[in-house]
Write a structure and sequence with these properties.
By secondary structure, the protein is α/β, with parallel strands linked by helices. It is built from 14 helices and 13 strands.
């Protein structure tokens, strides 16, 4: 019988590295693998179904929502018997969701912190036009993009580029063409301006396609210098990324969920934690060597008050 019900915005068979990190964190706190039930929450109802009544529902001690997309939909995903259970949110950036009662967890970049992505890019490459690319289906990414685009520094122009059709393992068929249009100014939203920079925001549709997204950015006919939200993109060959480091965040969420499951912690009494590595600039080693030569600019980024890590 499961004590922890984990709702994922991605496939669960086989489990991905974040789900495995969560499981490792829970096991490290004394919960068994059998006490965790994973559910694919991409559809209208979780798959497999959540327990709706009886001993199985009564045995559930905590609900885990992995990503803002899942957390925002919990009201429609949970049966009444589970609606008031304590919740652990991970991979969630929305301050309002994290402030709900009986919720704890590990926060991703908030909209305010996301402005750092713009500031890191401008400190490395000076001014110009920058695009912000994100999944149009994710409301929290609209808020992040708006925060980044608001009151940019002198000499910097920000354009937001929502993308339809992003999902784990799926990029829209015209994705490369959209990126080429951002770079050369022919994208319908580009206003005729060529963009020399790109900020790519993370959500399941971009993170689960990290290598494909990075390869497409690197393949534009007019070069784009990109910074990404999340370490995975630098590991996949991107030039720069800015926190968080998701695997430790999910491991920590597993620890919190198990502590609630064992009665050692209450969600209301534990403040939401900041994701490990959320303030770190991750530099893709190979891409940076081609761009700057090393140590060069990555060291200067760290000297500006932000920890820097080559990956």
């Amino acid at each position: 019988m499961a004590c922890i019900e984990y709702l994922a915005p991605t496939p669960i068979n086989p489990p991905n590295r974040l789900q495995l990190a969560f499981r490792d964190g829970a096991i490290g706190e004394g919960c068994s693998a059998a006490s965790i039930s994973f559910h694919d929450a991409r559809g209208a109802a979780p798959n497999p179904p959540l327990p709706a009544a009886g001993p199985a529902a009564a045995g559930v001690k905590v609900i885990v929502a992995s990503s803002t997309l899942v957390a925002a939909r919990l009201g429609g995903l949970l049966p009444p018997a589970l609606a008031d259970k304590p919740k652990v949110f991970v991979g969630v950036a929305d301050d309002a969701l994290l402030a709900l009662p009986n919720v704890t967890g590990v926060q991703s970049l908030s909209p305010a912190e996301s402005v750092e992505l713009r500031d890191i890019w401008t400190s490395a490459f000076a001014g110009g036009s920058i695009g912000v690319l994100f999944n149009n289906a994710n409301p929290s990414k609209h808020a992040q993009a708006a925060a980044i685009a608001n009151a940019p520094p002198a000499g910097v122009t920000i354009t937001v580029f929502p993308v339809d059709g992003l999902a784990p393992g799926i990029l829209p068929g015209d994705f490369q063409a959209q990126l080429d249009g951002i770079a050369d100014g022919t994208h319908p939203l580009a206003g005729g301006r060529a963009h020399r920079g790109l900020i790519v925001l993370s959500d399941p549709g971009t993170v689960e396609n990290a290598a494909a997204v990075v390869n497409a950015v690197n393949a534009t006919e007019t070069p784009l210098k990109a910074i990404y939200e999340g370490r995975e993109f630098a590991e996949a060959g991107g030039l720069m990324a800015f926190g968080p480091d998701r695997a430790p965040a999910y491991k920590r969420a597993g620890e919190l969920a198990c502590q609630i499951c064992r009665g050692l912690l209450t969600a209301d009494a534990h403040a939401v934690e900041r994701a490990p590595g959320a303030g770190t600039v991750f530099i893709g080693r190979a891409a940076a060597a081609a761009e700057w030569g090393l140590p060069g600019e990555p060291a200067a980024l760290g000297a500006r008050g932000r920890p820097t890590q080559l990956v």
